[in-house]
Amino acid sequence: MNDERVGQPAVSATGDRSVAADRIEGPVLTGDAEHVDARTFRLTADSILPPAQVDLSAPLCSLPRIPTEVFVGREDELEWVASALVAGPGPVVVGQVVFGLGGVGKSELAMQYAARYGNRYRLVWWITADGPERIETQLAALAGHIHPPIALAGTTEQAAHWVLGWLSTHTGWLLILDNVDDSVEVAPLLGRLTRGHILITTRRNVRWGAGIRALRLDLLEEAEAIELITVLTGRDSVEERRAAGDIVKELGYLPLALDQAAAYMQQGHISPSRYLTLLRAQPSQMYEAGPEGGDVQRTIARLWHITLEAIRKRDPAAERTMIALACYAPDNIPRAILGGPGEEVDIDRRLALLASYSMITLTDDIINVHRLTQAALTQHNTPALQAARCIALHWLYNALPENPDSNVVAWPMLRGLVPHLDHLTSCFSSGQEPTALGYALNELALFEQSQGNYDHAYAMRIRALAIVEAALGPEHPGVATVLGNLASSLYDLGRVAEAVLLEERALSITEMALGPDHPDVAICLSNLACGLCDLGRAAEALPLLERALSITESALGPDHPDVAIRLGNLASSLLDLGRAAEALPLEERALSISEMALGPDHPDVAACLGNLACGLCDLGRVAEAVLLEERALSISESALGPDHPDVANRLGNLASSLLDLGRVAEAVLLEERALSISEMALGPDHPDVAIRLGNLASSLYDLGRVAEAVLLEERALSITESALGPDHPDVAICLSNLACGLRDLGRVAEAVLLEERALSISESALGPDHPQ
């Protein structure tokens, strides 16, 4: 039809099956065999009204589901959102962003706000805003509810455009944009709206522009998390609450994980104790297990993989960094260890992206990863995880400083690395570890030993030896190094005979591989000699120590710190043989070298001071020794802390000198503290505890408290025999000390038997002419 009218513009149409008309009174269909349905909606030219002319006939609300009835731990945040949205002055748009870790309850908070404060609004509309296409589609759907003709006649783009005009010309509405992935995707929408309220939930902690306030939603507090579990499951007995407390700790106080666990327990009629057992035994299965009929997309395992996919699209290197971070312990990962020279900017950019998705918590110095994020990313041994473990190991190993046992400046950093190496080690299957893991374990074990953590250092060295020996073969010098360090741990644990066997093997390997005059041979000789001394075989140890000193001086020069160590070991052997006058100049030279090389406040200087003080005491120069021991104690406490085993050694030595000066009461206080430190650090059955018991008993004798002293001597003897064997020289010392106490109590016959046994042990171990 083409009816031209005077004064009116001509109406025309072009193209196949086009229609042109001045007025449309009914449906117009083109094409073959089209069916006309009398129910077809009919539009007139004035059917689509301008947005400003359309009002809601009734309140309109669209939420994806009913908010949960059990809503705990978020009242303050809910009130904060309510106050922030109400605070906007006049008819302007007020924006509020809620961001946080996936599963922390951002969407639920928005839903609770809409339900509780929905009466403030004529329109409440929920948009799942995880992409521009979905935003446009759901805006178009809103247009269709407000003004059906636009949805029928217009395209999706036109309908979305129309509804933005409507929102800009009306007040009393709330638009919830849930799960926004990129602020850029909603920027055009925010830029067009001039009034009303917008509530955005997102994992992203990014800048949102002027007028948009942000609220970080954190994990639940422990009490609130327990309440959530107990209320949802209906299990509130004392035992059940205790199990719920353990569950919330295992799940890291994450609301979605707690909700998932509670639903699983409730539906399966499983007690909290039973669920806790399953969670600890099969964590990966439980992370993926949701209740029957639940939303599989909302299980915690799926949640983080969705987030990781979004990160991968933006920066694949950031995804690799995230998985590498998950290979460390979850808390306090030092930023400084990540990457290498020239990578700082790239690493910072990746961390910023991960933090923006709330996958990590980031400060200037450290990174934290939620434990469930870690578990979700490491539960399956994928090629990506295998590569990430190697990246994490490479970063950590390269961050280790030289001389971790004596590099005091680096100790705070090393202390922070220990839990991360422990966790990383647990990620590798036995027999599948890279050689670098063995080296890293060996290095950090040196630090752990320096801190008095002997059991942990031993465990690390056992694993290191297995790794290095498998990789390099049993005769490699690298194996000898690890053997020597493992032997050192056995000494610390009082297992001297086992240590000597390892030292002998380490010496044999090193001499064969490196030659008889290599500095590493000197280390092996010195270590073996120390073991022999501890077994009472000082005469055998002496030539080994003299050879070790000669090699070290020739290889490293007379003023190297290692020379000081060799001098101290040789002097100690001479003291054991009763040759104090020869030992003293060696100790003085060792102290001079250490102070010059390491500074006056280094722990090795304290050791040299203590050794020199022992020599002075043996020569009767006790007053001089006390001054040195007091300085050694001060250095050790400052460098190592007041509860380190080396502090106990310093206290014991100082107390012994005070006894020689008749200052018994002061000595007892020091010995009691030394005993307490040793028992706490080493355990009640360590040989060093026996030494502390014997020293304290000696002081109690001097105070006339013989009965108390005898009890301590008996315990000291029992510990020493168990740890060192019945024929060790230290057993002879314990026997003699106990015999003295028994004599003082009038139990002479018992004392004689002990003294005879002590004499037999000493003659066998030290020779008939030894001063002891």
What attributes characterize this protein structure?
single chain, 772 residues, mainly alpha, three-stranded antiparallel sheet, 62% helix, 6% strand, elongated
Low-confidence stretches: 1-9, 293-298
Distance between the termini: 129 Å
Average pLDDT, rounded to a whole number, is 85
- The general outline is elongated
**Helix content range of the residues, please?**
55-70%
Characterise the protein shown here.
This protein has 772 residues and is mainly alpha-helical. 62% of the residues lie in helices and 6% in strands. The chain contains 33 helices and 9 strands. The strands form 2 sheets. Strands 1-3-4-5-2-6 form a 6-stranded parallel beta sheet, with helices on both faces. The chain has a 3-stranded antiparallel beta sheet with strand order 7-9-8. It is elongated and about 120 Å long. It starts with 59 loop residues before the first strand and ends in a 6-residue tail after the last helix. The model is unreliable at 1-9 and 293-298 (pLDDT under 50).
How would you summarize this macromolecular structure in one to three sentences?
By secondary structure, the chain is mainly alpha-helical.
Which SSEs are present, and which pair or pack?
Elements: E1 60-62, H1 75-86, E2 93-99, H2 106-117, E3 123-128, H3 132-146, H4 148-153, H5 156-168, E4 173-180, H6 183-192, E5 196-202, E6 212-216, H7 222-233, H8 238-250, H9 255-268, H10 272-281, H11 283-288, H12 300-314, H13 316-325, E7 333-334, H14 344-356, E8 361-362, E9 366-368, H15 371-378, H16 383-399, H17 411-426, H18 435-450, H19 454-472, H20 477-492, H21 496-514, H22 519-534, H23 538-556, H24 561-576, H25 580-598, H26 603-618, H27 622-640, H28 645-660, H29 664-682, H30 687-702, H31 706-724, H32 729-744, H33 748-766
Parallel strand pairs: 1-3, 2-5, 2-6, 3-4, 4-5
Antiparallel strand pairs: 7-9, 8-9
Helix pairs in contact: 1-2, 3-5, 7-8, 7-9, 8-10, 12-13, 12-15, 13-14, 13-16, 16-17, 16-18, 17-18, 18-19, 18-20, 19-20, 20-21, 20-22, 21-22, 22-23, 22-24, 23-24, 24-25, 24-26, 25-26, 26-27, 27-28, 28-29, 29-30, 30-31, 31-32, 32-33
